[in-house]
Amino acid sequence: MLQHIRLIIFDLDYLVYDCAKVKIQALRQSLISMADEIPEDVRLPDAVDAEEGYLAHGLQWIDHVEIGLSQDALEQLQPAYRIHEKRFVESGAGRIHPGIEELIGLCRQWNVKTALGAEASRDYLMAVTDSHQLDNLFYNMLCTEEFGSGSTDEMLEELMYLAEVHPSETLVLGTRSDCFQKARNMDLLTIGCGWGIHRHEGLAEADFQSMALGQLYSAIEAADQLAVQKSE
User: Is the pTM for the entire model greater than 0.90?
Assistant: First the structure.
């Protein structure tokens, strides 16, 4: 039972949703029509490259793929990627990480609300939601695309408003250092979650870390204790 935290905000990709195969399959499918424009000596990105791109650039990671494409080709790549990404999600690719549903069930027993704050487009969020019934898990779901560029802080503010909680009662779970920095600027506690990613360096920006879902319970309890201390 938590003493102070009343809302836990989850990011989507690599944390709730195991999206690694979706991202790399969608990218490769998008590049087929551009194969003639890619230099022969360029190594095509793999799943780890896609992950690193997302961790560094978030929703716009596809704009930063470096494979020798012209600017015109890069501009065509983003919409093509989004189409293929949505199709792969809707076909059943990807999965909810095992243990997430059990954790959210426990949060309900603790009378703690759970929200999804996704670094994603609205179409992508809805596709994942429909394919994996996320609306049965989360009290509210929003994505950064709904708030414009550099909008993580606005999204977090809106989720707190909808849940009727204060920053001191909110805990943010994520994978990206940019998310942790913005949450810190809002006086929100954070947990860096590493079970879905290979690169863990950015998790050091969070207040607490959990490299496996089984460790997350103790990290949440530790964050709750810190929230109690800060409120005194």
Answer: yes
